[in-house]
Amino acid sequence: MNPESLTIQDDPDIKRMMAGSTLRKVKSRSWKKQRHFRLLEDGLTIWYKSKWAGKGHSTFSVTEVEAVREGHQSEILLSTAEEFPADLCFTLVFHGRQGNLDLVAESSEEAQAWIQGVRKLIHKAQTMDEQERLDQWVRDWFQKADKNKDGKMNFKEVKKLLKMMNVEMNEDHAYHLFKMADKSQSDSLEIEQFVHFYKILTQRDEVWKVFQDYSGDGEKLMLEELENFLRTEQQEEEQSAQHAKQLIDSYEPSETVKKQGAMSLEGFQMYLCSQDGSIFNPELLELHHDMSQPLSHYFISSSHNTYLLEDQLRGQSSLEAYIQALKRGCRCVEVDCWDGGDGEPVVYHGHTLTSKILFKDVISTIKEYGFRASDFPIIVSLENHCGLEQQTLMAQHLTQILGDLLQTSTLDGQVPQQLPSPQELRGKILLKAKKIGGLEKCVDETLTDEVSDEEEMVNGDEESPSAEEPQAEKKNKKSKLSRELSDLVVYCKSVHFHGFEHSLSHAKCYEMSSFSESKAKKLSKETGTEFVQYNTRQLSRTYPSGLRTDSSNYNPQDMWNVGCQIVALNFQTAGLEMDLNDGLFKQNGGCGYVLKPDFMRDGSSQFSPEKPEERPSYKPQRLSIQVISGQQLPKVNQKEGSIVDPLVRVEIYGVPQDQAKEETSHINNNGFNPVWNKSLNFVIHTPELALVRFVVEDYDKASRNDFIGQFTLPFTCVQPGYRHIHLLSKDGMPIPPSSLFVNISISDYN
């Protein structure tokens, strides 16, 4: 074990976790069962089972846990608060879309040991470097396969383990390496010997070849040789000398080689696998956009039906769904409000069997979790179906719970000519809803024109859901709007869209409309340029068709192509569309705001996504990707003996002319170190809007290929040269150490 893991295993909280505890797992007010939990010897895996079940048990890794909440900090533990005191309760929150684990300890000391222990382990897992992480990954596998727990493995067991790890290889070669690693000549490997065996097994020829091309003596890269590599291959013109020094300092493991100002093959491989060697330019991951432009000049990460964890017909409405969206950097959340039975407004998907949550709890959750991932403004999109009385109560909740966070007046007291910037609204929450009159003067109490999204659908949108509203409610549509609620709306007044011409002569910058996906697509195809111009001045929100009752998503790219800022997606549904959203918003510090390209911020822009070549600054790019190899791809099918047949597909999303896909052939039975060496070529007409998605699939000639992993990023964030792509799961979570090794070149297309 490395020294750090020795110190952490001496920690009293960790010792207590390793000794094991009986904790009560709570799923609902009626489902509360005792389970035996303990931390395994690897210091990373938590194992638990029912006291009575025979062999059945479950495990999860600390790396899957994002945070530990203390006390009654989940809906389930709040609902059982009378039964279990807060000092016994804690919640493990997982990354991605995996549900929480609510636990109750038998004493407050026991609860504290688990709360503090898991937090220490999360911190340790987060601070490991690439090499430690890989070693830990190999150790985890060893622990899994060491069935009799004697800490040793003979060659037969090692072969079985390699198969579990997706490694298909020549037996003689493997045996030769096994003997080399078996220093004690006991015909078995202990855990650290296995880690060493795995290292020599995974030495990568394709990295060695690149290293040889630049190394004079074949042993190391001297400073100027590394500089030459950075200039020639990685296309780093400026400061390559300074960068070469930094890379040696950061990644060279051997002090002797470091003192010579050089880099060994091992250091070179570590650099290529690190963030510096990643396909995503690390500088662009930081906050770097100009945040002082009007809100309408940014793409804004936005969620639809934020309250749902599943589908729209019988899914569960949950505060956790808001927490998950906000921690993914979402900046516009939707709140669907209806009159509650006991006078308190509730949030749910109207006229369906989805469960209900209280409006005031949603607002408290937004306040608590809203600014953890980003401090730029949040827009609360209110879908208001309440009567006057409960609307007034909603206004009270908003002002009392949010206080100064809620922006209830213009910033300078003047009527705005353009929207304020994300910078000016830092830490503020804006309400998007209907408003009586404008900011200029307040008029009569009744509404004449404003309609909500759902009404717009009833007003003849062909995507109107079959669960239409009851007649009585339709008649009552022109109902009164509470003055108190109306007064809280400043920069996001919901209005009906009357066409681009009308908005050019009449619209105010603080008025915004919502478009169903079909309406938005129709407008972008027929009047793309006008839509781009409109979106320089005003915000527009697009939302999925009411027919998508399974909470599926539309492709957001079509909406971004015409500059729509608030492209609302079902964050609860993993897949291509959310990959694109995550990919676009990964840049700029993951703050949920991305500055649109300059030709989408100019009110007189003539840009049309249908005719990109007519843009004055038209400069198409050629993108060439050599897909070299893959590393440690995860198994799709857990059946013993099944090994993947991987292929790589590169997909481009952007203006219609840029949409393209190219793929490699598949490699039989090798998820461990497949080599493709295949070049895929693309021409990109509007680089500023393009996204590049790498998908790895398990080829199946009889049925649909299975998804293995993906990575999506903006074309403008791609680093050329030899790069690794660290793959993500379907849920958008890292799956280390799975990666692709590619060589990328970008040039002007003439």
From TrEMBL:
Residues 133-168 form the EF-hand domain. The keyword Membrane applies. It catalyses: a 1,2-diacyl-sn-glycero-3-phospho-(1D-myo-inositol) + H2O = 1D-myo-inositol 1-phosphate + a 1,2-diacyl-sn-glycerol + H(+); a 1,2-diacyl-sn-glycero-3-phospho-(1D-myo-inositol-4,5-bisphosphate) + H2O = 1D-myo-inositol 1,4,5-trisphosphate + a 1,2-diacyl-sn-glycerol + H(+). Ca(2+) 4 binds at I643, D645, N669. Its cofactor is Ca(2+). Residues 450-479 are annotated as: Disordered. Residues 601-729 form the C2 domain. Its EC number is 3.1.4.11. Its main location: cytoplasm. Ca(2+) 5 binds at D698, Y699, D700. The active site is at H304, H349. It comes from the Eukaryota. Keywords: Calcium, Cytoplasm, Endoplasmic reticulum, Glycoprotein, Hydrolase, Lipid degradation, Lipid metabolism, Membrane, Metal-binding, Nucleus, Repeat, Transducer. Substrate binds at K432, K434, S514, R541. This is Phosphoinositide phospholipase C. One of its GO terms (molecular function) is calcium ion binding.
